[in-house]
Amino acid sequence: MGSPNGWSRARGLVVKTLVLIGGALLVKRLTKSTTRWDHASIVSQSLSGEKFSKEQASRDPDNYFNLRWLSCPAADMVDGSKVLYFEQAFWRTPHKPFRQRFSMVKPCPKEMKCDVELSTYAIRDAEEYKNFCDRLRDQRPQPEEVIGDVAEHLTTIYLKRCERGKRCLYEGSTPPDGFPNSWQNGATYCTSELAVLKNNEIHTWDRGYDDNGNQVWGVKDGPYEFKTAPGPGPASASVDMLSPLNFPPLSIGKRIEGSFVLQE
To answer: Above 90 in pLDDT, residue 234?
Structure first.
């Protein structure tokens, strides 16, 4: 039998060894580099879900509406890219989305100085996809149908991981010259900015410009702020870019139809 002091020293050595091993594993875990696909996955998850601009609309009702953002996974591409379905509606009429898009999320090409590439696409038959995320899975278009219904490319936003100390996790924009756009008010191109914050909060700012660089649609004071805090509208049964259109307040005699502001 060993002496009590010997057993005590042995236990002490075991405890120290376990602490050292645990510390080494923790350091390894904390210093593990985030892969390109990890970045894409984080952005994809942050974009997904039901969010509202309720707080912002309450603070500044003259410039912002209470809009519902709803997005969810729709398909996976062969290369691993995630296809999300996205729709936006006024919170009072969530079943009548005025904007519908597919978003494709994937890592930026290695030669580019960004982390995540977020592209938006039109939908071949948008009517067929209304309230996609609110439906049971067997009542939605299936992944193979989704891939076949991805139509024209609209915009691409290049996101970078935010520097330490900033509120955001990722932020980025379209290239400075934007993408062709002739939706309304004489616009010839549009730009988009997007920021992913903690708690799946999304800030998005879309603007349209004419040939002379004058802004002709979109809010001017700053991005829309979408938060997952419970909104006044019906909650989604599901927990999918892209940046929604930002409309200035509509005067009497105007209405939103599709993604456009039209004069009666």
So the answer is: no
Contact between 59 and 227 under an 8 Å Cβ cutoff? The reply is: no
pTM score > 0.85 for this model? no
CB 229, CB 218: distance < 8 Å: no
pLDDT digits (tens, 9 = 90+) for 115-132: 999 999 999 999 999 999
How many CA atoms, within 13 angstroms, populate the side-chain half-sphere of residue 224? 28
Q: Output 1 or 111, whichever has higher pLDDT.
A: 111
**Residues 96/89, Cβ–Cβ less than 8 Å:** yes
Q: Check if the beta carbon of residue 115 is closer than 8 Å to that of residue 90.
A: no
**How confident is the model at residue 243, as a pLDDT?**
35
Asked if residue 226 lies in contact with residue 204, where contact means CB atoms within 8 angstroms, the answer is: yes
CB-based contacts of 220: which residues, under 8 Å, 6+ apart?
207, 248
Residues near 162 by beta carbon (within 8 Å), at least 6 away in sequence: 168, 169, 170, 171, 195
Q: What is d(CA 85, CA 102) in angstroms, rounded to the nearest whole number?
A: 5
- Please, are residues 133 and 236 in contact by the beta-carbon 8 Å criterion? yes
Phi-psi region at 16: left, alpha or beta (left = phi > 0; alpha = psi -120 to 50): alpha
Q: What is the DSSP letter of 112?
A: S
CA dihedral of residues 158, 193, 189, 264 (deg, nearest 10)? 140
The token duo for 72 is 């969810």
- Cβ-contact 115, 107 below 8 angstroms: yes
Backbone φ and ψ for 210, nearest 5 degrees, come out as -95, -175
Amino acid at the residue 245: L
Q: The tokens of 35 are what?
A: 């892969």
Pairing of strands 202-209, 189-197: antiparallel
Specify burial of residue 211 (Cβ count, 10 A radius: 0-12, 13-18, 19+).
exposed
